[in-house]
Design goal:
The protein is α+β, with helices and mostly antiparallel strands. It has 12 helices and 16 strands. Among the domains are: 110 residues, PH-domain like (Roll); 74 residues; 33 residues, no CATH class.
Length: 473
């Protein structure tokens, strides 16, 4: 993209709640739930707030007969503050949930600040059916309902209490139809340019096959420290590797490190207790010190064995954390769950062309604070679930996967186009070798009126591969 296009895309991203608008993508609709959602979910807080206001008014009116008790004033003030904060919390929660429609996809964003965040999305070309339900007379009078999208591979995505659901359904179907038509037009234009070049000899610099460059090869996170403690993603070329968030390493190491610290304190105490002992003194010391001196060999053996066990546990937890990897290459996703010492190894992988949806969630306040969560990758088969559990920056991971997925789909389309170009080149060579003067005027095809179709007397490409490739278009 040019610098101007990049700046326009950045401005569009800042104006929307998508956060990862793609080239040529624009936001068609952003819609929150109906404001009645605040009343439905926050009515206890609203009632408490109103009751505290009434109590404040009553306290003010009763002050004509004398000043009220300071404890009563403080109590009413605290009640008003609690009611105000609780009501504001529900209003803030309502402002963070969005249904977003672009010219390429639909996005469901459910976010509660400091508690959780979930995002699901589906490409428009995966949306098969759109349905809305208005479930009560109140919903009908206020014009809100539940929107449901039946998608390929993702399942049903629902957004409740969306205002003007009929209008939203119409916009989705219009964008779905427009996307299908634009794809068909671009493919038809591509075919026309190829035929003009091959058959008529017209050269056009814009008729090159569509391409999707791989992500720029780079290296990051490959320093010595990050190889030992991979707190940040590791990228070498086009392969990116994520590990679980460092907070899980710390949580698993707390107990063995505490045991190691306790052993060290006991060892220092033991060495201090026997520091003044002279082995040549007579009689030998008595009491607790004498017991320690007499059992010197057993005590030393205990400390040696205890340190070995604790250090082994520390190493095992670190190796177990470091061995679990989530990898992303140019064409596949790989999930490796590996235990130290070969106890168990599980490797799952899938190709990009099998992925139907990528969503993420930050499930708890702790996850929101430390910015980790789960990225779930859905495929048509339900037997294998791909989940990047507890990865740092799940929003960035989801966006990286979706970006590569789109590039992979474009590259796959470019590969099909190149195959067609190769077939047409061979076809044109065969015609030239037969010394035929020209290609006669032929009837148009039903799929593309601008493309000629060979007559029954001319050679045609009728191989299964050619027919299958044509069906794909």
């Amino acid at each position: 993209m040019s610098t101007m296009q990049t700046e326009e895309l950045d401005r569009a991203i800042r104006r929307s709640h998508v956060g990862d608008l793609r080239p040529n993508e624009r936001v068609i609709l952003e819609r929150r739930r109906h404001p009645l959602w605040i009343v439905q979910h926050g009515w206890p807080a609203i009632l408490f707030f109103l009751a505290s206001l009434i109590a404040t008014l009553a306290l003010f009116l009763s002050s004509a007969g004398g000043p009220p008790s300071s404890y009563l004033v403080i109590g009413v003030g605290v009640a008003v503050l609690i009611g105000t904060l609780a009501t504001a919390w529900y209003i803030l929660d309502w402002t963070n949930d969005f249904f977003i429609l672009t010219n390429q996809r639909v996005i469901f964003l459910d976010k509660t600040i400091g508690v959780h965040e979930t995002r699901s999305e589906a490409p428009l070309n995966k949306v098969h059916n759109v349905r809305y339900d208005i479930l009560s007379p109140l919903a009908s009078s206020l014009n809100y309902g539940t929107l449901s999208l039946d998608t390929a591979g993702v399942g049903v995505l629902s957004f409740d209490m969306i205002p003007r659901p009929k209008e939203v359904e119409r916009l989705i179907m219009e964008q779905r139809k427009g996307l299908t038509e634009s794809v068909g037009q671009s493919r038809g234009e591509r075919r026309r340019k190829v035929l003009q070049k091959i058959v008529l000899g017209q050269q056009d610099p814009t008729d090159l096959p569509p391409s999707a460059p791989y992500s720029r090869p780079r290296e990051r996170g490959l320093g010595t420290f990050n190889r030992i403690f991979p707190f940040t993603p590791q990228q070498q070329g086009e392969t990116i590797i994520w590990h679980r968030h460092w907070a899980f390493l710390v949580s698993h190491e707390l107990l063995p490190i505490a045991l190691f610290t306790l052993l060290t304190v006991l060892l220092v105490f033991y060495l201090g207790a026997i520091a003044g002992y002279d082995p040549n003194s007579y009689p030998p010391p008595s009491g607790f010190v004498g017991t320690l001196v007499g059992a010197g060999g057993l005590v030393a053996g205990f400390f040696i064995l205890a340190y070995i066990v604790v250090l082994f546990i520390i190493w095992y937890q670190w190796e177990d954390w470091r061995n679990d990897r989530y990898s992303l290459t140019h064409d596949r996703v790989i999930d490796i769950d590996k235990k130290p010492l070969g106890f168990r190894t599980s490797v799952k992988e899938t190709l990009f062309n099998r992925i139907t949806d990528v969503s993420y969630s930050l499930p708890s306040p702790f996850a929101m604070i430390f910015n980790y969560g789960t990225v779930e990758i859905k495929t048509p088969g339900e037997a294998t679930v791909f989940s990047f559990n507890d990865v740092p920056n799940p929003r960035g991971v989801q966006q990286e996967i979706m970006t590569r997925l789109e590039k992979h789909r474009t590259r796959e389309q470019a590969s099909w186009d190149n195959d067609i170009v190769d077939w047409l080149n061979v076809y044109h060579e065969v015609l030239n070798r037969s010394n035929r003067p020209s290609v006669p005027e032929l009837p148009t095809t039903r799929a593309n009126p601008a493309l000629p179709r060979p007559s029954s007397s001319e050679p045609r490409l009728t191989t299964p591969a050619a027919r299958g490739r044509d069906d794909a278009y």
